[in-house]
Design a protein that fits this description.
With 246 residues, the chain is an alpha/beta fold. Helix content is 46%, strand content 13%. It has helices at residues 16-27, 39-51, 66-75, 102-130, 141-144, 151-171, 189-194, 197-204, 215-225; strands at residues 7-10, 31-36, 56-60, 83-86, 133-138, 176-181, 237-238. Strands 3-2-1-4-5-6-7 form a 7-stranded parallel β-sheet, with helices on both faces.
Length: 246
Amino acid sequence: MTFENKVVLVTGAGSGIGRATARLFAERGADVLVQDINADGAQQTAELVRETGQRAELSVCDVADVQAMRKTVTDTTFAHIDILVNNAGIPSDRCSLEEVSEEMFERTFAVHVKGTLFTTQAVVPGMKERRYGKIVNLSSIQGLSGFANAATYNGAKAAVLSMAQGWARELAPWRINVNVIAPGHVMTNMPMSRDSPEELEQQAKTVPFLRFGQPEEMASTIAFLCSPEAQFITGQVVSPNGGYLI
């Protein structure tokens, strides 16, 4: 499962699943366009890519900034973008429905939905021209089975999933595969920065495998969906969740 001569754009690649994905694609021969709002995180990921011997370019911007993301795609020195991983995201709201603010709603949908849609829009013309492309959207188990006290996050992640299935139908004539992964509990900075070790331990007990997933396990699922082995797979949702939704 190699990606030689391929270029991958990973949004939100400065940490967590995005960083693990960028590094795995590089280890398997791809060059990587690293996007993140955090300059330090993006630079660190780019260095990890270069350590594999592959090329890395950086785009430090807000994924919700449509013009900035278009510029990311048009200004790259890479000849083309073959694979897009729409990974950028922000944490769940974690508040009651009554406490949801307009600002909370707008920001959650701007990052997850607007960012995913318009970044995809920017790369699709080149993929159509070459009649080749792989797109993976990052949804969540919360897009499959809504959690309490997470109205905006549930909605945004469900939208990311539904958009991908529509694109899979729309883009199939150009041999562009569009799929979704919906991770369960994953050990990234997001939960670690919000929950105590004791809370994380209790959450892990709700998973049949009694542990959180690792970013690298999400990255390997993404890589599979972008590989030649998965060329007949499109419009599908794969949920690496350790059995949480059984």
